[in-house]
Amino acid sequence: MSETLQTTLLNAYDAQLREEAEMLATGSIDRAGPLWRGKQVNSGFVSYRSLQGYAGLELDRLIADTIAHYAADSQIISFEWKTRGHDAPADLPERLLAHGFEADDPETVMIGEARLLAQPVDTPDGVTLRRIDDQPDPHADVVRAVRAQELAFGAPTHFSADDYLRWIERGAGRVELWVVETPKEVICVGRLEIVPDTEFAGLWGGGTLPAWRGRGVYRALTAARAQSALRRGVRYLHSDCTEFSRPILERSGLLPVTTTTPYLWRR
User: Is 171 helix (H, G, I), strand (E, B) or coil?
Assistant: First the structure.
């Protein structure tokens, strides 16, 4: 791995994909010191670029004030404080835990040129790829896609079909929802999210039914989203990867630049 390239990608990530860029899905935003605090329906999300100047008791006060901010809204049942492995201060995770947050699974942040992932991939016979958000009425397909994600991940999704439909409508074409399917079922799902006023788009929500893993369908879905991103003038793709998707994206030329761990507060 080129250390210079990795540094360039990480700098672009910090400059373009944090703070306001992470608030696109939220319905309301407020500011508190270095923090951007968003709300959507019954959840919240905290973003920042740097916590420079906050340590010890000052950092504890910032965390406590943020908990109080969300707790005062009876509609909010949880919120996420997203940390990155390269951020300072190093003891932020321990302080979040001490304030009652729970750590979710860590993931690897991958970034690379969209063109590297846009190479065509053959799919098994009878398998097709399709973008479903741009239909006159995508409701039925979105319901099928959410069900496929639940089967792929073995748990309820973070977003319901209605959440996706609101997200698609609010995004006005910025959020693309793609599926891989057979005549009988959806077997793989993923989103492409264009980040306005940046060089980036995100690859999110990738999930493949267990029986179809290792057969190229996720790679094909990734390639289709990359091709769409290129048509829309995107240079870089980024993704927070699990251990399952990281090898696929890494083989395509994306580089790991940092890690991310969500810390969750629940009422």
Answer: helix
